[in-house]
Specification:
The complex is a heterodimer. Chain A is mainly alpha-helical. Chain A is built from 16 helices and two strands. In chain A, α2 runs antiparallel to α3 and α2 runs antiparallel to α14. Chain A is globular. Chain A is about 65% helix and about 0% strand. The termini of chain A are far apart. By secondary structure, chain B is mostly helical. Chain B has a domain of about 50 residues. Helices cover about 80% and strands about 0% of the residues of chain B. Chain B contains three helices and no strands. The longest helix of chain B has 20 residues. Chain B is elongated and about 45 Å long. The relative contact order of chain B is 0.13. The mean pLDDT of chain B is about 80. The chains are: A mainly alpha, B mainly alpha. At the A-B interface, α1, α4 and α5 of A face α1 and α2 of B.
Chain lengths: ~575, ~70
């Protein structure tokens, strides 16, 4: 009888660990480049969310007596628009760019604390979802992004009053705000500590502080600003939570508190925050302009140290947001002076950027277009900001659409243009592919037209007395056409962003594969593979000037041969 | 064949470099961030404190796990 022997193969395959799967690698990654990409994708998602909020606001205001949204929802939308754009788009986007680029720029293999870096990212993601989920509860923050107390206080039992004839916020709306801000603050602290230690301790041999790329400089200053400014808003939020839930009265005048305490605490964070949002964009522009002008940056030292000056001065100007509360004359004079002073280092930067382009062989590639757009738009935002430093003028336009125009010229015309300059500049490094140039030009011109169409009329609206955050308006105040123009401009901006999304998708699917150095750039991030290997550099480069990659490519005319710094 | 071997020799230091230098993967950062979020959701859901305390417990576990993780 035949016997049959069945031999089963011994399986040596084991189940893959989570960390070995594609998704697991992203969930558990501590690689600064992956985290940078995750930051940027998350930020862009929230940019779209905040953008939809903006379009809803502009639709509501397109015509007088608009009723597209209810007043309650409108309050939530304009508040969340600001919170989303500031804390969930601009900050994470700049952190993402910094995360990806700074270690490469300084010749490091990763950030100093990779796990802390991952933690910072996940806190931003969950914090953003936490804040945005407030819409699901019908209780999104609704008192403006600066959450003025006592408007944000919880009402007493059975009443909507704080005991001071001031309406309060009885729902959990402002709890979402306070807790969300606390959470995002934790992320910012984690990120800032990481940037400071990475930049100060992990630079390549020879990269002295005076040879650091300017984007790295601005990221370092921004990290310090965050470290020194966040404690005040953290404290303010904790006091608010104590007021709301444990019966303290820090901000309620009727019970011995002081509403101005909130404003001081908030704005001593809030104004450095403006520079936190713009300084990294200054850094991006300072990287892009020299490459596309084929010149070293003009006045490196002035650009770097004017950033430091802006950092210091940004802590001395907060009360210019509070001129209308009735500050003592001497305080008004001080804050008006300090606000005017901060225009000086800012103007130094603009002068140096223009000096960089002067006499250069300009190449109007997309990063350069956005960089030049940045300078023009930011200049308008800077000038109308300086106007707001004049106390009598500020009295006239405080809390009007003039202020909305100012901040959007700075944050959209400035920061967002800067961010797109950075995206178009570093996209080939990150993906190995080149975004479509024609679509980039379409996007740029739509954005330039859109920004001016949306925000320039707001200057006039403000001068005509249109208050910011107003739900609707009667048709006989002379604001109708201006509002309609602004709404058309907002939708133009929306189309520009759609063009970018289209460009992004087709490039990733079938875009032109690029070389490792498509712009003939100057700095170290281009002196490695594209996209870079996980360890960034096989051998850590040695730096001898401010343009180490230029030196390597042009040994005959290397910077270190002709200049000392 | 010889070319393959040469290529392998070239890649070998890169792979070794990657093994040595690449930061180790860790799930504690995401777990700690999620635990923190759960705690805050618990604050929103007060006075029902259960979610809050579950969140706090997870935060403590995450800190300990993170601290004891082999680098």
């Amino acid at each position: 009888m035949a016997t049959r022997t069945i031999t089963e193969g011994v399986s040596i395959a084991r189940r893959r660990r989570l960390s070995e799967t594609y998704i697991g690698e992203w969930l558990m990654t501590t690689d600064h480049k992956k985290l940078g990409i995750m930051y940027m994708i998350t930020a862009f998602f929230f940019f779209l969310v905040g953008g939809v909020d903006a379009l809803l606001i502009r639709t509501q205001l397109a015509e007088p007596n608009g009723k597209v949204l209810s007043p309650e929802v409108y309050n939530q939308i304009f508040t969340m628009h600001a919170i989303t754009m500031i804390f969930l788009f601009v900050m994470p986007m700049l952190t993402g760019l910094g995360n990806y680029i700074v270690p490469l720029m300084i010749g490091a293999r990763d950030m100093a604390f990779p796990r802390l870096n991952a933690f910072g990212y996940w806190v931003v993601l969950f914090g953003g979802l936490f804040l945005t989920s407030s819409f699901l509860f019908g209780a999104a923050p609704n008192d403006g992004w600066f959450a003025y107390a006592p408007l944000t206080e919880l009402s007493g039992p059975g009443t909507t009053s704080c005991g001071n004839a001031v309406m309060c916020t009885p729902g959990p709306n402002m709890d979402f705000w306070a807790l969300g801000i606390l959470m995002l603050g934790i992320s910012s602290i984690a990120g800032s500590v990481n940037f400071v230690v990475t930049i100060l301790k992990l630079r390549a041999p020879g990269m002295t502080i005076n040879r650091m790329p300017l984007f790295t400089w601005m990221t370092l200053i921004t990290a310090f600003l965050l470290l020194f400014s966040l404690p005040s808003v953290t404290m303010a939020s904790i006091l608010l939570l104590l007021d709301r839930h444990l019966g303290t009265h820090f901000y309620v005048a009727g019970w011995g508190g002081d509403p101005l305490l909130w404003q001081h605490l908030f704005w001593s964070f809030g104004h450095p925050e403006v520079y936190i949002l713009i300084l990294p964009a200054f850094g991006i522009i300072s990287e892009v302009l020299p490459v596309f002008s084929r010149k070293p940056i003009f006045g490196y030292t002035f650009i770097a140290w004017s950033g430091v000056a802006i950092g210091f001065l940004s802590f001395t100007v907060w009360a210019h947001h509070m001129f209308a509360v009735g500050l003592p004359l001497v305080a008004q004079a001080f804050f008006a002076t300090s606000t005017t002073l901060i225009a000086i280092p800012t103007a130094v930067k603009i002068f140096n950027w223009l000096g960089t382009t002067w006499g250069g062989k300009l190449s109007f590639k997309p990063p350069m277009l956005f960089a030049l757009g940045f300078i023009a738009m930011f200049l308008i935002g800077g000038l109308n900001g300086a106007a707001l430093a004049i106390v009598p003028f500020d009295y006239q336009v405080t809390d009007t659409y003039f202020v909305v125009a100012h901040l959007h010229y700075v944050l959209f015309g400035g920061t967002v243009f800067g961010i797109f300059a950075g995206i178009f500049y570093w996209f080939p490094k990150i993906t190995g592919k080149m975004l479509n140039e024609r679509l980039a030009q379409v996007q740029f011109w739509l954005m330039l037209i859109g920004v001016n169409l949306t925000f320039f009329p707001m200057h006039i609206m403000g001068l005509l007395g249109m208050p910011r955050r107003i739900y609707t308006y009667p048709g006989n105040l002379g604001w109708n056409e201006l509002n309609l123009l602004a709404t058309i401009g907002a939708f133009t901006l929306g189309i520009a962003i759609l063009v970018f999304i289209w460009n992004f998708i087709i490039t990733l699917r079938s875009g032109e594969v690029t070389s490792t150095d498509p712009w003939d750039a100057f700095t170290l991030e281009w002196d490695t593979d594209t996209p870079p290997k996980p360890y960034n550099f096989l051998e850590i480069p040695i730096v001898r000037s401010r343009r180490p990659f230029y030196d390597k490519k042009n040994p005959e005319t290397a910077d270190w041969k002709s200049m000392t710094h | 064949m010889i070319e393959d071997q040469d290529q392998h020799k070239k890649d070998a230091p890169n792979e070794a470099m990657e093994q040595v230098i690449r930061p180790k993967l860790s799930y504690w950062p995401i777990v700690l961030a999620a635990s923190l979020t759960l705690t805050l959701v618990g604050v929103i859901l007060m006075p029902h404190a259960i979610v809050f305390w579950v969140g706090v417990a997870f935060v403590i576990v995450s800190f300990i796990g993170w601290g004891l993780e082999r680098r």
